[in-house]
């Protein structure tokens, strides 16, 4: 299972949030971005409950004010193996 998560956070907290979440094994990519959202995460794990734990941890973080999670549809483009 894979998802993209867009995060809005308190100004100035981007670097500490990125440092914290890049250590999680489920986070395979994390970047600061410009625009409506502040941080982009690519999250992947075969166990959906682990994905839920990452999203809940994001939502409960005191410096994160909003998040938007988009689950990947397998077999519709990209570089994802249809067998996953």
Automatic annotation (TrEMBL):
Pfam families: AsnC_trans_reg
Transmembrane segments: none
Start and end residues of each Transcription regulator AsnC/Lrp ligand binding domain: 5-73
Domain of life: Archaea
Matching Gene3D superfamilies: 3.30.70.920
InterPro entries recorded: Dimeric_a/b-barrel, Tscrpt_reg_AsnC/Lrp_C
Name listed for the protein in its UniProt record: AsnC family transcriptional regulator
Gene source species: Nitrosopumilus cobalaminigenes
